[in-house]
């Protein structure tokens, strides 16, 4: 596995350890951690994964026995599950802060994060698989899936209100976690035209340097699609 060093304009003291992030560029879970690292101006090393079997190597399984990404390594300490990683980064590197200090704001961030993972991601997964060509959904299944997604989008639209960000006027983990998924929905055939606040919000997020630097490239998506199709064909043979 090759590695790419990312400094992001931050001069790292000689004795400061460099973080390592095992990731997949097109993964929502990976991208939210990647963005948080950039927003905090931390020095880190990106270790890309292909998920073509490299997640099953003894080296990687020693970091995560469940063989999925992302994984963050900080010296001898390793951590997986993206929300746990985000909490860890916030606790160890609190400046700049990506969580509000008041109880209501903190609760809102946690709620939005969990709704994204527990409601939006499961509802969206069939559309992702359909758009990648892994499965074929009929029109009724697509419509039913979009209805589930709409419940979450309506909630997010109401939560956002007329604010620039979900909690006040400052970027938080809620924007990072929800924004990386919502902004990708149009590519899966889910229009945001009925959600003017979300549309403006996703546009604003897309203009941030961290978003632009981590935007999945078409060739990365195509490469992942072909890799997965080959693996699925091998398993089916």
From TrEMBL:
Q: Where is the GST N-terminal domain?
A: 17-97
Q: Where is the GST C-terminal domain?
A: 102-231
Q: Which PROSITE patterns match?
A: GST_CTER, GST_NTER
What name does this protein carry? Answer: Glutathione S-transferase
């Amino acid at each position: 596995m090759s590695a790419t060093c990312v400094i992001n304009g931050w001069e790292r003291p000689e004795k400061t350890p460099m973080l390592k992030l095992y990731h997949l560029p097109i993964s929502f879970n990976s991208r939210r951690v990647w963005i948080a690292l950039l927003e905090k101006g931390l020095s880190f090393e990106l270790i890309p994964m292909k998920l073509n079997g490299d997640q099953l190597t003894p080296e990687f399984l020693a970091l995560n026995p469940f063989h999925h990404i992302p994984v963050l390594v900080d010296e001898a300490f390793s951590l997986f599950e993206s929300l746990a990683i985000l909490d860890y980064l916030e606790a160890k590197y609190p400046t700049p802060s990506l969580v509000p200090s008041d109880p209501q704001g903190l609760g809102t961030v946690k709620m939005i994060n969990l709704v994204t993972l527990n409601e939006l991601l499961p509802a969206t997964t069939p559309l992702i698989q359909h758009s990648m060509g892994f499965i074929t959904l009929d029109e009724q299944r697509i419509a039913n899936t979009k209805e589930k997604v709409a419940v979450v989008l309506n909630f997010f639209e109401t939560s956002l209100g007329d604010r620039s960000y979900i909690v006040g006027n400052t970027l938080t983990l809620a924007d990072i976690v929800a924004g990386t998924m919502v902004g990708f929905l149009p590519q899966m055939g889910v229009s945001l035209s009925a959600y003017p606040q979300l549309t403006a919000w996703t546009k604003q997020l897309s203009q941030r340097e961290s978003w632009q630097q981590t935007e999945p490239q078409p060739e990365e998506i195509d490469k992942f699609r072909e890799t997965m199709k080959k693996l699925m064909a091998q398993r089916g043979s």
